[in-house]
Amino acid sequence: MTNNKNVLNWVDEMVALCKPDKVVWIDGSKEQLEEIRALSVSTGEMVKLNEEKLPGCYIHRTAENDVARVEGRTFICTRNKEDAGPTNNWEDPKVMYEKLGAMFDGVMKGRTMYVIPYCMGPVGSKLSKVGVELTDSTYVVLNMAIMTRMGQAAWDHLGDESNDFVRGLHSKADIDEEKRYIVHFPEDNTIWSINSGYGGNVLLGKKCFALRIASFQGKNEGWMAEHMLILGLENPQGEVKYVTAAFPSACGKTNLAMLIPPEIYQQKGYKVWTVGDDIAWMRIGDDGRLWAINPENGFFGVAPGTNMKSNPNALISTQKDTIFTNVVHNLDENTVWWEGLDKNPPKNALDWKGNKWDPESGVKGAHPNSRFTAPAINCPCISSEFDNPEGVPVTAIVFGGRRAKTAPLVYQARDWEHGVFVGSIMASETTAAATGAVGVVRRDPMAMLPFCGYHMGDYFAHWLEMGKKLGDKAPKIFNVNWFRTDDEGHFIWPGFGDNMRVLEWIINRCDGKADAVETPIGYEPKPEDINLEGLDIDLETLKGLLSVDVDLWKEEAKGIHEFYGKFGDHLPKELAHQLEILEENLNK
Ligand code: SAT
Ligand code: MN
């Protein structure tokens, strides 16, 4: 399959360590994948769903203690502790290789090791990179087949000589949480993951490579790996402008990426095209602009809340060749269900734990972080540029999170440097995507807190550096918050398709077609410049959504001081200066 000695030697070494009974090289062919599906069904790893209603679809359940990323057990192992920074768990690489080496020793005895070659990004693109994942899980093989360009094409992209591939090793031998480790060695292009079967911990091309390792590579090679969706917004003249947006996990990236504009926009001819829903790799093109590709090939989306109203494009994407994880299994129809899919929970069903489920019981049937793994090509609004090796030019970068009060619906940064500040102070209420308390506000710069593979202060400096190189060709930077609530805790802004109204203002700003008002935190729309036609929201409510509460922001500034304190002398002086400007503005 490959003659690349770097690959062959490393696989030999890992086989000698893990001692599998058998090694299967994945070529990505239909026949081979079909065999592996049949095998997973025979072992009970997956259940085949109703072929008429959900052709090519399967359901899988993880262990009950293994349903989300485990940030406490995720490590960045660099030779110098300093290089991993204050926001990552660190261990000395030597110590960690030894510790995990002992755990991997003989771990695949009696099992099969699958060698999965995969390409992150369109095959042949200058920005694409190859990874190889060794795993003893057929679930991982089948998910990687959806999430990446997997098989022979990846070997071809790598070539026979290159050593530039990420070495991933995964085993799911034991489900004991105390023995679970998700470990990155950025200096060796290596990822070792053991004793988990949950997506973000084991699909090593995704968060581990495409964000943690890739962010480190991007810093060294002059590009960016970001936790961002990429969408194209087509106007009635047929011009498409591309926007990338960073929100923390489970804050609606998939929904925004697949947005369907409200009726009044559709009538005029506006359309939204999806390039990616989770990760963007960006580089400066020959024309000096910032260009983005989506390194993934599928969507690993949150199931609960996805329905024909909230996100029809996502739901349609899951109707064939999809793997569902930790959702409700409808036994009468052999289909799937989750909270928020529709108002008819199945009566004869198993919950995500595999127990008989009574919808009347008040107990949730699907896990809040249950997921679908769906091929990107299933998406009705997939962009024609999805496979373009050049990527798409980025007009605007949007940051956002869940904030009940502080952040307004939308504001624009004064310039790139201020934009980096806006990204760096991002904060959001936590969700079920990671283990731990839900609903607690935490700082999550650029939505990269759990995903930055090096010192976050240096990461901010890299952003500033990129801005200097981009100069006046830099995308404009914005911040949005769809999650402001009223005194009863209800969301005020309808969100979903109506977010188009905010995107319209963002694009108009980039085109120099919309005005703005200056506030202490940045530029905001004039309320009358947000189109409210057909919405149940009046101008007063909108003004409320755009209001900046100076007292809350003074509190916020204190929180930022404290947060910035962590970074010591790695904090770029430009950001400290931006914080001073914010405080001055608030005290005016
Ligand atoms: O990390 S996952 O890929 O499992 C999902 C997420 O948290 O964004
Ligand atoms: Mn994500």
UniProtKB/TrEMBL annotation:
Annotated positions binding substrate:
R69, Y198, G199, G200, S249, N369, S370, R371
PROSITE patterns per record: PEPCK_GTP (PS00505)
**What residue stretches are annotated with the Phosphoenolpyruvate carboxykinase GTP-utilising N-terminal domain?**
9-218
Q: Where in the cell is it found?
A: Cytoplasm
Catalysed reactions, as listed in the record: oxaloacetate + GTP = phosphoenolpyruvate + GDP + CO2
**Function summary:** Catalyzes the conversion of oxaloacetate (OAA) to phosphoenolpyruvate (PEP), the rate-limiting step in the metabolic pathway that produces glucose from lactate and other precursors derived from the citric acid cycle.
Q: What is the name of the protein in this document?
A: Phosphoenolpyruvate carboxykinase [GTP]
